[in-house]
């Protein structure tokens, strides 16, 4: 049947007299699904017929056939699938099309043919590689066609051709363009050639880069010819070079900027002599009539100068968005020029000028961590300070525009102000009086669209959030009426934005009563604000977002003004109670209640608590995590709860205290600590209850750390302070430690011992009277009598307590600990060294000299040095100062130790000691770089690593001056010293990039040098009958590549990406560990600098392909197979990342690799699973944002 249908269609197509009716339209539509169903030779026949009909002189037949051909091409499987059908169809069509294009008889045939050709090159370009030369030779003559439409479509087709053509064809095309531009026969063709160059750069910027040196001077020359259209095309070409060839265009950027600045103001037929006219003249009504008149005079239809200005604005936008390193220069030259053009008379151009300025502000936003660098602030003119000084000029320009008729212009102004305060919060404080009337003008404007109102409100909101309250006090009378009327607006989006502003209005001007500095009286506005909000709060049939914002806004009103609303308060709280029972609004209501409960006005919530608390308690059972957290915060702050209510809540707590959600546990613990203070009697029921069981289980969790651990310690201290019977000091101590001491069973996690020890110490600190003495005896008893885990816990507990409490009154401690040093268990040994260090912190004069003397005399230096590390890391600076010299000289004796573990501890001690007195000690460290022993040099360089932290520190400026000297060890003859230097460099680049940013030019060559494989470091080792190769340089290379990866995140703007990519490319062919690292780098690079990666794509694809197609020898061990699988997956991740660059799949090598992947079952499966993962990860990151 299918065959018959096709046959009918064939004969129908072959009839010459197809009537153009709905019927034939439908038949053409069927061609799509047919292509994938019928036999190959039938598709070819269909295509053949369509091609013939396309050349017919009957217009209807031509139209239908060309629609048919486009349908067929659209339905063919993509080039990457390697389908034979697509290849044969395209080859068939191509011959017919090239001849149709070349015969310049009928323009409409030519246009259709060019259109289909462009379509086919775009979808299937890779299959036509053999035809590319003939396609090119048929397209080039069309660039001089008398019909502009033909030229335009030819340029589109060429644009698609350069994405997939081979290098020779590309060179031919560029040479042709350069020759023709050089001849410059007539203006019209020159325009076309410039447009064509721009199109090629847009589609294949990564290939045209190397010809820019020849192209740009020609374009600059034509820019100066007096022809507006040509100028527009030239500037558009610059824009595409700037966006697509970042590296090659670099030397020409200043030229491009100066041309753009010149043509941004190019308006030969208009005289802007009103620069300094009276600002108020615009507001006067009678001006409107003249204003209209003046517009008509200048609307000459042949005035094309606006297109030149628009192109210049867009090109500046491109420059500003892509050349981050020139920000200071932009603020000197580009920023003032753009601000001057806010007065542009042509609306479309004005929008582009605004957009360019927005791009400049977005680039300035100090979101990038390395920009908001504390050291950068000292260098005088940073982009932020320059912007700050230009704010008055910007505000003056915007002030005029805010009263413009045009909605689009005013929206641009609001976007500008919003972005400006995001970059510089508080910058408009002086200018609020000038701007508020402009914002109110749009809020009151009857004719304005709802979008404009929404933008105006959103802008007002951001400005209020980022500026101090007093700046708005004078304007509240003017702001309240328009904002109140917006809250009542029927369109929910306006209401929603207006409620946010109301919430700010309430917070801001009204909180001054607490500091008493200003007497601002809110009473005239309370009624209006309350009435408009309560109306929205009561409404049930209203948008979800409005409901939520009305609840938050009312919460804020009560929090700030509750004392002025005595009659309205009870009713409003009852509405809150209703909203608490509704699943959709409960979360927002809990937050609002928390706000009210914390108000300094002490709002009385008792009327609703009996109903509210049981509801809140029930929320603790719900599965919604945010609801649990907010509810715990609310309960924590509600002080007026009765014991009965507390019991209801306590019943819900046990399931919340568990390791499955540490944040919820933390909030539950902090609620319990509050209870211990407000309702100590309620805690009596804990003694036998579930809560303590859960607590003990949580203490043993390996996940307990950070905030949750701190909350746990606070709770134990609060609990022991309540003196509840059955929960005294010794009771709790036994509960915590009993299981370990009595059953002597080892706990599953080492972390648990530390947590228990910390809890014990917290309890001991909370009971200074009975604690320490009984505690030490208890511990020593356990230590002597118990097994391994008892001794471990006893030592850790002694350490934790000794840290805060002076235990020197117990003389036997020293011997007990030194005995433990010879235990058979490594864990007991390290616990003993920690304990000794910690106890020493509690009394330095007693213990530190003892530790130092032991280090000099005994054999157990490694453990004692660990104790010393603990002392240096935890003791107060003042306490350590007197001992610095003796510790320093002791450490130096050990920094040449053979044992690397010991050297590392010594280095850490040296580094941390240097932080105590950097002025004296840092130069000393530097001096040891000259030491003859490579061990000493490596210790010193490692020590520097421990002086760098991600927080600002006093040592930073000193370090910045001399870190270059330490990094000179990258040229050290000793392998190990070089490796350590790389690790230190990596630490600096990661934690405090400002230290090394200025040194990169000198450091990078040495860093890159270490990425090379060194033959002389590879040796063969005989293991029995087998020979095994060992590469001594591997760790060094790995360290170097790790540094490169870190630099991508912290110093991208200082790297020459192309040199960087050369080394990444080498890494792709290196050892397993390094391949894994470079695959990760490729993925990062694809998102950070896609255009550079595109230019190198062909060289990067090859090694990826090699990795994916490597076979493991059949008799290899299991690990080999696992390693190879891991490599494949990582390589595929890199491939998926490369394919996120839009033009990547057009590269012939890449599309060939893709078809290889899809034809290999194993690879296709890996590829699909990774694509699924990456798309779901993107969705998740959108959800959380």
From TrEMBL:
Primary site of residence: nucleus
Entry keyword Metal-binding: no
Enumerate the subcellular locations listed in this protein's record, separating them with semicolons: Nucleus
Q: Which InterPro entries match?
A: ARM-like (IPR011989), ARM-type_fold (IPR016024), CAND1/CAND2 (IPR039852), TATA-bd_TIP120 (IPR013932)
Annotated Gene Ontology cellular component terms: nucleus
TATA-binding protein interacting (TIP20) domain spans which residues? 995-1157
Segments for region (Disordered): 274-302
Q: What is this protein called?
A: Cullin-associated and neddylation-dissociated 1
């Amino acid at each position: 049947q299918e065959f018959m249908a096709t046959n009918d269609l064939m004969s129908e197509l072959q009839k010459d007299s197809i009537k153009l009716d709905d019927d034939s339209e439908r038949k053409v539509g069927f061609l799509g699904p047919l292509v994938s169903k019928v036999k190959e030779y039938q598709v070819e026949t269909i295509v053949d017929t369509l091609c013939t009909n396309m050349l017919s002189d009957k217009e209807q037949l031509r139209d239908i056939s060309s629609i048919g051909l486009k349908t067929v091409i659209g339905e063919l499987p993509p080039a990457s699938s390697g389908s034979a059908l697509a290849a044969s169809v395209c080859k068939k069509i191509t011959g017919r099309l090239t001849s149709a294009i070349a015969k310049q008889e009928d323009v409409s045939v030519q246009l259709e043919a060019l259109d289909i050709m462009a379509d086919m090159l775009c979808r299937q370009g890779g299959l036509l590689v053999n035809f590319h030369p003939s396609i090119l030779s048929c397209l080039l003559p069309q660039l001089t066609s008398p019909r502009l439409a033909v030229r335009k479509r030819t340029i589109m087709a060429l644009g698609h051709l350069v994405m997939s053509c081979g290098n020779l064809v590309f060179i031919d095309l560029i040479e042709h363009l350069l020759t023709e531009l050089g001849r410059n026969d007539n203006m019209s063709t020159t325009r076309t050639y410039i447009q064509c160059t721009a199109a090629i750069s847009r589609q294949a910027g990564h290939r045209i880069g190397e010809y820019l040196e020849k192209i740009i001077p020609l374009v600059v020359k034509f820019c100066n010819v007096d022809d507006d259209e040509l100028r527009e095309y030239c500037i558009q070409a610059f824009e595409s070079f700037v966006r697509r060839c970042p590296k090659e265009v670099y030397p020409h950027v200043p030229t491009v900027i100066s041309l753009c600045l010149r043509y941004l103001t190019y308006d030969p037929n208009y005289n802007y002599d009103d620069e300094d006219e009276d600002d108020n003249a615009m507001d006067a009504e009678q001006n409107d009539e003249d204003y209209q008149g003046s517009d008509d005079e200048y609307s000459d239809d042949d005035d094309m100068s606006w297109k030149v200005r628009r192109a210049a604005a867009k090109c500046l936008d491109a420059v500003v968005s892509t050349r981050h390193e020139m920000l200071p220069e932009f603020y000197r030259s580009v920023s003032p020029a753009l601000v001057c053009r806010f007065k542009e008379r042509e609306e479309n151009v004005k929008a582009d000028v605004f957009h360019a300025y927005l791009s400049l502000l977005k680039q300035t936003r100090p979101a990038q961590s390395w920009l908001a660098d504390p050291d950068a602030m000292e260098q005088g003119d940073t982009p932020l300070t320059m912007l700050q000084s230009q704010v008055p000029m910007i505000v003056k320009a915007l002030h005029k525009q805010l009263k413009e008729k045009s909605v689009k212009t005013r929206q641009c102004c609001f976007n500008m102000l919003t972005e400006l305060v995001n970059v510089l919060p508080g910058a408009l404080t002086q200018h609020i009086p000038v701007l508020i009337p402009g914002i109110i003008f749009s809020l009151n404007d009857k004719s304005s669209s709802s979008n404009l109102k929404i933008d105006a409100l959103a802008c007002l909101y951001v400005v209020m959030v980022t500026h101090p309250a007093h700046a708005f006090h004078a304007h509240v009378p003017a702001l309240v009426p328009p904002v109140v009327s917006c809250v009542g607006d029927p369109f929910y989006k306006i209401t929603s934005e207006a409620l946010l502003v109301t919430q700010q209005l309430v917070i801001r001007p009204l909180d001054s009563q607490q500091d008493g500095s200003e007497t601002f009286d809110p009473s005239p506005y309370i009624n209006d604000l309350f009435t408009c909000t309560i109306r929205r709060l009561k409404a049930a049939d209203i948008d979800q977002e409005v409901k939520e914002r009305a609840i938050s806004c009312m919460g804020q009103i009560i929090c700030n003004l509750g004392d002025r609303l005595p009659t309205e308060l009870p009713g409003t709280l009852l509405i809150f109670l209703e909203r608490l029972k509704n699943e959709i609004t409960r979360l927002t209501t809990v937050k609002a209640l928390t706000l009210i409960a914390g108000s300094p006005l002490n709002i009385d919530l008792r009327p609703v608590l009996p109903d509210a608390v049981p509801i809140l308690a029930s929320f603790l059972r719900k599965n919604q995590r945010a609801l649990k957290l907010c509810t715990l915060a609310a309960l924590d702050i509600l002080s007026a709860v009765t014991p009965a209510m507390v019991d209801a809540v306590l019943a819900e707590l046990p399931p919340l205290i568990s390791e499955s959600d540490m944040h919820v546990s933390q909030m539950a613990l902090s609620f319990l600590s509050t209870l211990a203070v407000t309702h100590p009697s309620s805690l009596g029921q804990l003694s036998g209850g579930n809560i303590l069981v859960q607590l003990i289980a949580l203490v043993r969790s390996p996940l307990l750390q950070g905030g949750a651990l701190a909350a746990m310690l606070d709770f134990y201290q609060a609990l022991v302070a309540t003196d509840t019977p059955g929960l005294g000091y010794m009771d709790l101590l036994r509960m915590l430690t009993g299981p370990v001491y009595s059953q002597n069973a080892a706990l599953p996690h080492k972390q648990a011992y530390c947590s228990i020890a910390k809890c014990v110490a917290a309890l001991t600190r909370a009971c200074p009277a009975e604690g320490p003495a009984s505690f030490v005896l208890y511990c020593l008893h356990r230590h002597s009598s118990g097994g391994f885990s008892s001794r471990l816990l006893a030592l850790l507990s002694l350490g934790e307590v000794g840290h805060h409490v002076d235990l020197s009154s117990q003389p036997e401690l020293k011997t007990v600990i030194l005995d433990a040093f010879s235990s058979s268990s490594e864990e007991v040994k390290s616990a003993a060294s920690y304990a000794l260090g910690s106890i020493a912190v509690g009394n330095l004069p007693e213990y530190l000299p003892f530790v130092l003397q032991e280090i000099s005399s005994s054999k157990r230096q490694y453990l004692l040095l660990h104790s010393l590390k603990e002392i240096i890391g935890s003791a107060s600076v003042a306490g350590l100062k007197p001992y610095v010299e003796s510790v320093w000289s002791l450490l130096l004796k050990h920094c040449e130790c053979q044992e690397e573990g010991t050297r590392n501890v010594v280095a850490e001690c040296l580094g941390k000691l240097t932080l105590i007195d950097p002025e004296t000690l840092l130069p000393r460290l530097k001096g040891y770089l000259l030491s003859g022993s490579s061990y000493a040099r490596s210790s010193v360089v490692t020590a520097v690593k421990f002086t760098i932290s991600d927080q600002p520190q006093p040592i930073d400026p000193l370090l910045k001056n001399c870190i270059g000297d330490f990094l000179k060890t990258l040229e050290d003859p000793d392998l190990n010293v070089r490796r350590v230097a790389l690790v230190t460099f990596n630490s600096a680049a990661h934690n405090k990039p400002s230290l090394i940013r200025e040194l990169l030019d000198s450091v990078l060559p040495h860093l890159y040098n270490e990425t090379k494989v060194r033959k002389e470091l590879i040796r063969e080792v005989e293991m029995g009958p087998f020979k095994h190769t060992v590469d001594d340089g591997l760790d060094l290379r790995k360290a170097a590549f790790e540094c490169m990866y870190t630099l991508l995140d912290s110093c991208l703007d200082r790297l020459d990406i192309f040199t960087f990519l050369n080394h990444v490319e080498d890494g792709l062919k290196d050892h397993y560990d390094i391949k894994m690292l470079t695959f990760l780098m490729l993925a990062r690079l694809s998102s950070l600098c896609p255009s550079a990666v595109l230019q190198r794509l062909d060289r990067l694809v090859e090694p990826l392909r090699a990795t994916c197609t490597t076979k493991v020898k059949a008799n290899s061990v299991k690990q080999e197979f696992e390693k190879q699988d891991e490599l494949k997956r990582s390589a595929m991740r890199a491939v998926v990342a490369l394919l996120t660059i839009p033009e990547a799949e057009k590269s012939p090598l890449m599309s060939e690799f893709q078809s290889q992947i899809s034809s290999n079952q194993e690879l296709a499966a890996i590829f699909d699973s990774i694509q699924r993962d990456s798309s779901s990860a993107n969705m998740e990151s959108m959800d959380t944002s």
